Amino acid sequence: MSAAAVGVALAMAIGCGRVSDPAEAWRRYVAAFARADTEGAWDALSAPTRRRFEEAARRTAMLPGRPPAEQARLFPFLNGRELRSRAARIETATVQGDSAQVRIVDDAGAVQTVSAVREGGGWKVDLTAELDAAARAAASPPAVSAP
Q1: Distances, alpha carbon 44 to alpha carbons 28, 30, 41, 66, 102, in Å
Q2: What is the pLDDT of residues 95-109, one digit of tens each?
């Protein structure tokens, strides 16, 4: 095998984006988000999560004149999604088949659980449950209290 072929194979193995651990998938997503690395954050998300952001971008057209695919990649940054402290520690990652729950504790002791799914031999952050909950909350009429 030529040196060029070895280099290409090595680059593909290293740079293919496969994450072997669900906790590492979350770390990569948060790091990309913190750097405002839209492509890195997008690549860290599961296919169902990316589809949800694409659907939301098509519905809202937050950035007129930009194609929906570009808007979808920016949507996690534009919708104000709050990420917990980057200094948070990952307490546990519980894996069941191709799904995982990652328990994160921030500096103040607040606990957050995020999902990850195995796709293409690696782990991706899956925000579909959070996006579904946010959509349900937005669709619910506000509660009216009696005087």
Answers
A1: 7, 9, 5, 22, 15
A2: 999 999 999 888 788
How far is it, in rounded angstroms, from Cα 88 to Cα 108?
Answer: 9
Domains and CATH numbers, the chain: 17-138 (3.10.450)
- In terms of Cα–Cα distance, which of 136, 91, 96 is closest to 116? 96
* Residue 45: closest CA among 34, 33, 36: 33
For residue range 103-128, list pLDDT tens digits in order: 988 878 888 888 999 999 999 999 99
User: Contacts by 135-144 with C-beta closer than 8 Å and gap 24+?
Assistant: none
Best CA proximity match to 49, nearest among 138, 140, 125: 125
Residue with tokens 């990952």: 90
Supply 138's token pair.
Answer: 């937005």
